[in-house]
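[Meeting: bench + compute handoff]

Bench side (C.D.) handed over the final construct sequence. Compute side (W.E.) agreed to return the predicted structure before the next meeting so the bench team could plan truncations. Sequence as handed over:
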Amino acid sequence: VANVLQQAAVPSLFWLAQCWSSMINLRQEDPAQIMSLERVEKLMARVLELDETYLDAGPHLFMGVLKSAAPPELSDETEAAMKHFDRAQEIGVNGLTEEELLLYIEH
């Protein structure tokens, strides 16, 4: 029963993290918002644990973008980002080719 309840929480956790990160993006000048990014990352990490395939590997795409967004001077997580993008491609992101996935990532 607990596993079923956890699986049922995946959409809510995913969209909470997605919306919260959008709010942070809109308020980048607010240090408190930037500090809450760690919580967003933890939410999406939980989604990855529960169902990495949700929404065509959406959690991996999210984490890949998140990890690649920070300037290298602050946190160089390029390798971690690429692992997420690679895993998303393995899972099959809406049948995107590698070139299409790279275009998605860049924009």
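W.E. noted at the follow-up: The chain has a mean pLDDT of 85. C.D. will use this when planning the next construct.
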